[in-house]
Amino acid sequence: MRGSPLVRALLAFIIIGLLGLPLARLTHRSEAKAIGDLPVPISEEKPVFVAMSFTQLPRRVAISHLGQEKWATADIKDSEVEAKLNLAWPAEGVDLRVAIDWPEGPSLMGAQVRVTDPEGTEHVASIFAKGPADEILTFH
Could you read off the pLDDT of 117-139 as tens digits, one per residue? Predict the structure, then answer.
């Protein structure tokens, strides 16, 4: 064997230490802001059409967007209702909170929610419950 074992060990530790610098840089958190901390641009409000049909008439229906109640109705007399709402509709879509106050009962009740976005595309979602329902529906 040629060379000193101490020199070889020292050389190996230096190489490992030099390789550790890029690895440490990759695995440690940087000072950049997290995605959740960045401001999200809100698009301007545009007209959106919402139509709902029910298997059983509810006592009250409310639709909220971004924490604000945009539409509510009580004393529904028809199994289908329609509304025109002004909503900010970004390219990612929207989340609508739909609260339906059905009477408690043993049978399953349902509602179909149809949303027509500002570009004219219709999106459909359904809600089923055996009493009052409070759902967040996402439309892309």
Answer: 999 999 999 999 999 999 999 99
